[in-house]
């Protein structure tokens, strides 16, 4: 029986693996595809302290190398279907029926940004289309960008981008923002921000790099093209909660309810990184979770 099985090998899972190895726990990391998580889709990471700039792919490789150098065993291409309580822990049931026993489970499966689904979005992701203003905003200094969405993230992103960008346009599909009042007031006070209401992206245009965005007014059907250097999509995120929201309490967005200790509401099950409720979803907060979760798991195992 393992002390802990870590599900997911993004920054939270890899940090947890390093800490689990240092704590001399008997552990395993399982990953449904290839290790790395969301940073594999990030062109550059330049806000991780101590590393001035690194590609997402390289950072993912370094995190994995570090974990493996500590002795972590990582199994890829395995999908976990469900779990059930057994004496002293849990049995994890894999796709295909194989099972493994573990005293605790650490879920570090991350989240994915919701997509717009319009033409040009996928092709130009990483070439002007971004899902993370905090990560990529610095590359658009003195440029003209569009932010899509009307929630807190979109409005915060627009405020953040307005510090460095020449012009920021927020595009919302309705005529009222969902974001909190104080953020909206701040947004509207900024001289280089404008809002286009009742509109959705019809197409993102560019050959190799974003050059323009076509917006469709949902009331009139009119489509207008605007020159653009960047498009920041902030239409919400979707946690990879494994479909376990019935068994492990989640918030209304599907994120596992857990605080900094990463303890979920189910004894012996922990959630670290983007998949848990938290304010800021970044590499640095995910790796911090990995450390905190293992620290709490060590305490829990000692208590048992
Ligand atoms: P969100 O609140 O779900 O907002 C998503 C926004 O995107 C909504 O305005 C929605 O429009 C729009 N949208 C959704 N699908 C769309 C589509 N296909 N095309 C165009 N627009 C689309 O997501 P979020 O802003 O990422 O926030 C997630 C949670 O984190 C929220 O609970 C939020 O309050 C919280 N959060 C809090 C803070 C803070 O407190 N400082 C900061 C960030 C996030 P509609 O409004 O028409 O539905």
Low-confidence blocks of residues: none
* Major sheet details: 7 strands, mixed
β-strand amount: 25-35%
Helix content: 10-25%
The average pLDDT is 95
The distinct bound ligands, ions and cofactors come out as: NADP nicotinamide-adenine-dinucleotide phosphate
Rounded to the nearest angstrom, the distance between the terminal CA atoms is 14 Å
- Cα-based radius of gyration, to the nearest Å: 21 Å
| Shape call | elongated
Output the helix-strand order: EHEEEHEEEEEEHEHEHEEEEEEEH
**Number of distinct helices:** 6
How many beta-strand segments? 19
Q: Given the helix and strand composition, which structural class is it?
A: alpha/beta
Describe what this molecule looks like in 3D:
- The chain has 304 residues and is an alpha/beta fold.
- Helices cover 23% and strands 28% of the residues.
- The strands form five sheets. Strands 1, 2, 5, 6, 7, 8 and 19 form a seven-stranded mixed sheet that branches. It has a five-stranded parallel sheet with strand order 10-17-11-12-13, with helices on one face.
- Helix 1 links the parallel strand 1 (2-7) and strand 2.
- The two termini are 14 Å apart.
- The mean pLDDT is 95.
- The chain binds NADP nicotinamide-adenine-dinucleotide phosphate (NAP).
- NADP nicotinamide-adenine-dinucleotide phosphate binds next to helix 4.
């Amino acid at each position: 029986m393992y002390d802990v099985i870590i599900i997911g090998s993004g920054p939270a899972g890899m940090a947890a693996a390093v800490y689990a190895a240092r704590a001399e726990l008997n552990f395993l990391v399982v990953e449904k595809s290839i290790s790395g998580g969301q940073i594999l889709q990030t062109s550059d990471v330049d806000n991780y302290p101590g590393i001035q700039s690194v590609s997402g792919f390289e950072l993912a490789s370094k995190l994995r190398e570090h974990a493996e150098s500590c002795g972590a065993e990582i199994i890829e291409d395995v999908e976990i279907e469900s779990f059930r309580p057994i004496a002293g822990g849990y049995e994890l049931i894999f796709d295909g029926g194989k099972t493994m026993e573990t005293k605790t489970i650490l879920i570090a499966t991350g989240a994915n940004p919701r997509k717009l689904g319009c033409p040009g979005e996928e092709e130009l992701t990483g070439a002007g289309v971004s899902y993370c203003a905090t990560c990529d905003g610095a590359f658009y200094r003195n440029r003209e960008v569009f932010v899509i969405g009307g929630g807190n993230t979109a409005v915060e992103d627009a405020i953040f981008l307005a510090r460095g960008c020449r012009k920021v346009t927020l595009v919302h599909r309705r005529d009222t923002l969902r974001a909190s009042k104080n953020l909206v007031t701040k947004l509207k006070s900024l001289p280089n921000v404008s809002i286009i209401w009742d509109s959705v992206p019809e197409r993102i245009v560019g050959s190799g790099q974003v050059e323009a965005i076509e917006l469709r007014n949902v009331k009139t059907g009119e489509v207008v093209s605007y020159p653009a250097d960047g498009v920041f999509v902030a239409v919400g995120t979707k946690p990879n909660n494994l479909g376990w929201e019935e068994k492990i309490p989640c918030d209304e967005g599907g994120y596992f309810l857990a605080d900094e200790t990463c303890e979920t509401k189910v004894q012996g099950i922990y959630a670290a990184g983007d998949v848990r409720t938290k304010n800021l979803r970044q590499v640095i907060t995910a790796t911090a979770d990995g450390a905190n979760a293992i620290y709490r798991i060590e305490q829990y195992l000692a208590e048992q």
